[in-house]
Write a structure and sequence with these properties.
The protein is mainly alpha-helical. The chain has three helices and two strands; from the N terminus they run E-E-H-H-H. It has two domains: 7-56, no CATH class; 59-87. Strands 1-2 form a two-stranded antiparallel sheet. A hairpin with an 8-residue loop joins strand 1 and strand 2 (22-26).
């Protein structure tokens, strides 16, 4: 949430990303002493560090496999109990 009326921010426009058009970085209240190019390099570093998030989220095969294994195990226990109780 932005508070106050005088906040500075950097807006990065991306052309090569399929997910994002813009990235907004709000600067701290303490005025940075870095040149604008260094601030843009830091913003790009932060974006690059977070880009692995989507790569980690793609692996769903393991979750589906665990779900099927749990389902089969549950069905096997049900059939075993049904055979032992005899109803």
């Amino acid at each position: 949430m932005l508070k106050g009326c005088q906040r500075e921010m950097i807006v990065l426009q991306t052309q090569d990303s399929a997910l994002f058009e813009h990235a907004y970085f709000i600067l701290r209240r303490e005025k940075p002493t870095l040149p604008r190019g260094d601030m843009l390099a830091e913003a790009n570093r932060i974006i690059g560090a977070g880009s692995g998030y989507f790569a980690r989220r793609r692996h769903r095969g393991r979750g589906v496999l665990l779900f099927l294994l749990g389902f089969l195990l549950g069905a096997g226990i049900f059939l075993l109990l049904r055979a032992l109780i005899g109803f």
